[in-house]
Design goal:
The chain is of the alpha/beta class and 425 residues long. The chain folds into two domains: 152 residues, no CATH class; 226 residues, Alpha-Beta Complex (Spore Coat Polysaccharide Biosynthesis Protein SpsA, Chain A), CATH 3.90.550. 52% of the residues lie in helices and 16% in strands. It is built from 15 helices and ten strands. The strands form two sheets. The protein has a seven-stranded mixed sheet. Strands 8-9-10 form a three-stranded antiparallel sheet. Helix 3 links the parallel strand 2 and strand 3. Helix 6 runs parallel beside helix 10, helix 6 packs across helix 15 and helix 10 packs across helix 11. The protein starts with 10 loop residues before the first helix and ends in a 6-residue tail after the last strand.
């Protein structure tokens, strides 16, 4: 039997491989630049967190704190106690539920009765039953009813989520920046602690990558779980009439209003709020995708940037792995490996900064952070893969489920309630 001729790579094949490697190097360079810029922003974020240790100041006008509630989360009692024990001279706390049948309603009513006997903390506590609306989100509807219940003496409106755990100086720290007339909104953000399960670890790594986008610059966004605005500015910007009346998102509505007026959103690091809930992997995927669907509807430019950024990471990494398998020369293989390693190391470096931030802000969680704090950087390489899934799915999704209620998002100002869960009856 005659010997088969050996396969050889002709000039055209070698040229094609060279072009592919060149394309990878170009994409890798772009990704490296993006990662270095992101790392620099992370360093600035950490520096800002450390600078926030200075004294808060004495600015503390009368405030109304509106907290929408639905159901009873695992840390409900602990978080509730924190909101009712703020170091603030005069503040009204307004809890809002959609229905008297909500389990949170009875729990809140009992707590208010206890407060009436003890008399401490807020100067006044109210419980509002908001009812339901068909053309806006349940949370937004709760906020609108809560604002209407604010006392006439409230100079500042504050909004918070019951599933976050504030420090004792949270309210004072959040309101203090409003002493500066150039600041219209003061905001914090949630900060997921790693928890105990893999899905909770991954969610912490995923979400804190978004938190570190905030800083001392002009493109901050408001977060509805920890934001404050002067009552007169809230009315002047017509938040309810123009931005909440037919909306699902409270914080994007406030962000759009402030940016349209050319005004400033201040990020206050002391108002990063710890969230300690456990989750499953499926719940995490649903939650993270819902965040991105809302982003696509209310801030499509951010969705496009996020899709491009996560797509660049995953596409470059996949191309590098493919070329590594096809590379015919050791120098090319080494170059590809070096680029892939650099990508991973830069991602891990950003994750380590988030670990440092968590230890700075949440010193009382030192035991848990000592055990699981490394997950912020250990799981950082997985985050872009989850994000590219989120961004792609969000490009086609028009419906989201939020605490048992199914919504259809037709546009920023067109929301339809498709189905309410049992807890929303």
């Amino acid at each position: 039997m005659p010997a088969l001729p050996k396969k050889t790579v002709g000039p055209s094949g070698r040229g094609s491989a060279a072009r592919q490697v060149k394309a990878f190097l170009i994409l890798g360079a772009l990704l490296a630049i993006q990662s270095v810029v992101s790392l620099r922003e992370g360093l600035r974020f950490l520096r800002r967190v450390r600078e926030s240790r200075r004294s808060v100041g004495t600015f503390a006008p009368p405030a109304a704190v509106v907290i929408p509630c639905k159901g009873i989360d695992p840390d409900f009692d602990v978080n509730l106690s924190r909101f009712l024990a703020q170091d603030y001279p005069r503040y009204q706390t307004i809890f809002v539920v959609a229905s008297e049948n909500d389990p949170a309603c009875e729990a809140l009513a009992a707590r208010i009765r206890e407060w009436g006997q003890a008399r401490g903390g807020p100067s006044k506590i109210d419980l509002v039953v908001a009812g339901f609306a068909e053309d806006r989100g349940e949370k937004v509807n709760n906020l609108i009813r809560g604002v209407a219940a604010a006392g006439p003496g409230a100079e500042v409106l504050v909004f918070a989520d019951i599933d976050a755990r504030p420090q004792r100086d949270w309210l004072r720290s959040l309101v203090a920046p409003l002493e500066d007339p150039s600041v219209t909104v003061s905001t914090g953000f949630r900060w997921y602690l790693p928890g105990r399960g893999f899905a909770s670890h991954l969610r912490a790594a995923w979400d804190t990558s978004i938190a570190t986008l905030l800083g001392d610059h002009d493109h901050n966004f408001a977060w509805g779980g920890s934001m404050a605005i002067r009552a007169q500015d809230f009315k002047r910007l017509e938040i309810v009439e123009r931005h909440w009346a037919r909306s699902l998102s409270d914080d994007y509505g406030v962000t759009r209003a402030v940016r349209a007026a050319g005004e400033k959103i201040h990020f206050e690091p002391r108002c990063l709020l710890a969230s300690c809930e456990e989750t499953t992997f499926v719940e995490f995927l649903r939650w993270s995708t819902r965040q991105i669907v809302i982003t696509r509807v209310y801030a499509p430019h951010l969705w496009q940037l996020g899709l491009a950024s996560s797509g660049l990471y995953c596409g470059t990494f996949l191309l590098g792995l493919v070329l590594l398998g096809l590379a015919g020369s050791p120098p090319a293989s080494l170059l590809i490996v070096a680029f892939l390693a650099a990508i991973l190391l830069l991602g891990a470096a950003k994750g380590r900064l988030r670990t440092a931030v968590a230890r700075e802000i949440f010193a009382d969680e030192g035991t848990e952070l000592a055990r699981f704090g490394a997950r912020y950087w250990q799981l950082a390489p997985l985050v872009p893969w989850i994000m590219v899934f989120n961004f792609v799915v969000a490009g086609f999704a028009r419906r989201i489920e939020w605490r048992g209620t199914l919504y259809e998002l037709r546009s920023p100002d067109q929301v339809r309630v498709v189905r309410r869960g049992e807890a929303s009856q």
